[in-house]
Write a structure and sequence with these properties.
heterodimer, A: Rossmann fold, five-stranded parallel sheet, B: ABC transporter involved in vitamin B12 uptake, BtuC, 2 strands
């Protein structure tokens, strides 16, 4: 009996030691990923190297980068606005391998896999000078990416202004970034000025997405934030609630969709079409302001939701001018 | 058949070896080694073995990143994950005396999944993703404890353990689905990848911390492993030879959880390896837990290694989750087992 006990105690001790060792190694590695979410700023030091502050730390580029790899759709879209053609990009979500509006610009590009699991060997083989990634997608591989090349990380995948600023900083093209964003600001101001002459202004807008088993309202995110920037209010029932996305799992929740204008997008599959027909046939749906006034627009899901870059933001704004029959 | 028995520590630990076991295990060891070397050579670009050797021994350095930072830890991780899953499955199958038991079927893997998805759902962006393994192991442990407690009725019988496990597993999968539906697209995508199971992006620091976790159950298995052979003969028999069945069962269950939970924590929901590896091992060598465990570990390692190799080379430049392939082989295998044991 006592021997058994002894063996058991030894086993326990070994385990405890192991646990202690684990704790130690865990602490060590925190430093590496310690994130600093301060807004990005870059500094050109005397030696001509560029320092960029981003979501996962501060990264130094020894010289102006030429070979660029982008690992999320928004970066691929936006880097082209700087006149730089990336050497490697990740596949798009639809219209694979690349969204139609970018295909012409990216004819000779190398695809390095998918945004969610890009192929590290392929990226390394391209010998890039800089990599643009997203924390939400690539936090786990940040260290490996940094070994390949300086890696600049955006916190989200849809904040196209942050993407523009980060790319501008890393390429040493801050002025270009400022110009691009100033263009955007003046365009959105123009839109707001013209749309506000509408008799129903101020208007609320809802971005809806129908799925096979539910519907969702994007309150913030890419399209939502652009609509708010353009002066639209949040959906009537959701104002002041700070929701990002609202899931509607039951048709009784349809009144939450209520808004003066509805922008909707959905996949073209039978399941989704069924949900759509089912929901839109419901009496509650007929009560929505946008439906009563015939202000429901079906939009391009690439430009409004899946691309998330500066170009697609402009495409989205083009659509808005068209829907409200405004001239630029 | 020749057989040797080694007894250590005054008969506390005994190891039985037979020529057949040596032969079979030797062959699997060769197979795993071969596949491991192939994994170092194959990828986006083929690096000849001679260059791999020169790289590892430091004679050249143009493949440092690809070989030493990417392929070596990834292949090592695949071996660890496969071995852990295999042994976890072997323990469970011996424990409940049912060839259909495995960590993913009785709910340990779903517990780990729930832990991981809960972490991704509530913690993404707030807590660093490197703590995900902890959440997964905790989920697996909680699930196992819950299964054990609910099954308890003056002791736990294996069949009740399995049935309760299957039931709880269904509930936990429902919770996972619920969270996926409620979460944003980006979060859901991260969770989906985790659920499919992927050895992608393994790093040396992950490999080391995984080894530490795996070391915890090993002393228990070495000391108590022999008891598992006896347990397999039935509870009454175990009691009659003086084994405290409940305590041992509990310790074995926890060992299995630690192994499966750790594998799930670092590689996600890689399924069916815990079912297949012990099965293949049992068909090839005779039952004696320590020997069987070594063979099972090698077979498990082989399965995950080959699944990951296929996953990252077949559809280049795509790098897809290895879990897709273990499921593709495993699901038909499970059906075959159900068919084979349909009359028992």
């Amino acid at each position: 009996m006592s021997k058994k006990l002894l063996l058991f105690i030894v086993a326990c001790l070994v385990s405890a030691l192991v646990l202690a060792a684990c704790g130690g190694s865990g602490e060590e590695s925190t430093d590496a990923t310690e994130s600093d979410n301060a807004s990005n700023a870059s500094e050109e030091t005397e030696s001509g190297s560029i320092e960029v502050e981003h979501a996962m730390g501060t990264t130094t580029l020894e010289e102006k980068p030429e070979r660029v790899v982008t690992l999320y759709q928004g970066a691929t879209d936006t880097v082209l606005e700087f006149g730089v053609t990336p050497v490697g990009v990740v596949e798009s979500w639809v219209q694979m391998p690349m969204y139609d509006y970018l295909k012409d610009d990216l004819q000779d590009v190398t695809y390095v896999g998918q945004e969610t699991q890009p192929n590290l060997e392929e990226i390394a083989a391209l010998e890039p000078d800089v990599i643009f990634a997203s924390q939400i997608r690539h936090e786990e591989i940040y260290e490996q990416l940094s070994e390949i090349a300086p890696t600049i990380v955006n916190e989200t995948i849809y904040d196209f202004k942050e993407t523009t600023n980060l790319i501008g900083s890393a390429l040493g093209e801050e002025e270009q970034a400022e110009t691009l964003l100033a263009d955007w600001d003046s365009r959105i101001a123009d839109f707001q000025e013209k749309v506000s002459t509408n008799e129903n202004w101020p208007m609320s807008a809802a971005v809806l997405n129908y799925r096979a088993d539910h519907a969702r309202i994007y309150v913030t995110g890419f399209a939502g934030s652009i609509l708010q920037e353009a002066g639209f209010e949040e959906p009537t029932e959701l104002q002041g609630q700070n929701e990002e996305i609202v899931m509607l799992n039951d048709k009784e929740a349809i009144p939450q969709m209520n808004a003066d204008v509805i922008f909707q997008f959905m996949e073209d599959t039978p399941d989704v079409q069924n949900t759509y027909e089912d929901w839109t046939a419901h009496p509650l749906y007929q009560n929505l302001e946008a439906v009563k006034n015939d202000n429901v627009f079906t939009v391009d899901e690439v430009a409004w939701n899946m691309a998330g870059g500066l170009q697609s933001a402009h495409l989205m704004l083009d659509d808005m001018y068209e829907y409200f029959e405004l001239e630029e | 058949m020749k057989q040797w028995t080694f007894r250590l520590f005054n008969d506390r630990i005994s190891i039985q070896l037979s020529t057949r076991w040596l032969l079979v295990t030797g062959i699997w060891l060769l197979a795993v080694t071969g596949l491991f070397l192939l994994s170092l050579s194959a990828g986006s670009n083929w690096i000849p073995l001679t260059e791999v050797f020169m790289q590892i021994t430091g004679q050249i350095d143009q493949h440092t990143f690809v070989v030493e930072t990417l392929r070596l830890p990834r292949a090592t991780m695949a071996i660890l994950v496969g071995a852990a899953l295999g042994i976890a499955g072997l323990i469970l199958q011996s424990l409940v005396r049912n060839p259909l038991a495995s960590p993913d079927i009785i709910g340990i893997t779903s517990g780990a999944s729930l832990g991981a998805v809960t972490f991704i759902f509530f913690g993404a962006g707030i807590i660093s993703m490197q703590y995900l393994p902890l959440a997964a192991i905790a989920g697996g442990l909680l699930a196992a404890l819950l299964i054990y407690l609910i099954s308890w009725n003056k002791g736990v019988t294996p069949i009740r353990l399995v049935l309760i496990g299957v039931g709880l597993s269904a509930i936990m999968k429902a919770c996972v689905t619920f969270m996926l539906v409620m979460s944003e697209t980006a979060t859901a995508t991260t969770a989906y990848i985790w659920l499919t199971g992927s050895i992608y992006a393994a790093s040396w620091s992950e490999v080391t911390s995984m080894i530490w976790w795996l070391l915890i159950p090993i002393p228990f298995l070495v000391v108590l492993g022999r008891g598992l052979n006896v347990t397999e003969l039935g509870e009454d028999f175990s009691i009659s030879v003086g084994i405290r069945v409940q305590l041992q069962q509990f310790i074995f269950l926890m060992c299995s959880v630690m192994l499966a939970g750790t594998a799930a924590a670092y590689a996600g929901g890689i399924e069916f390896v815990g079912l297949m590896a012990p099965h293949i091992a049992r068909r090839l060598v005779h039952r004696s837990f320590p020997g069987l465990a070594v063979t099972t570990a090698l077979i498990g390692a082989f399965l995950v290694l080959i699944a990951d190799l296929i996953a990252r080379t077949l559809f280049l430049p795509l790098d897809i989750p290895a879990g897709v392939f273990t499921a593709a082989i495993g699901a038909p295998f499970f059906l075959y087992l159900l068919f084979r044991y349909r009359n028992q």
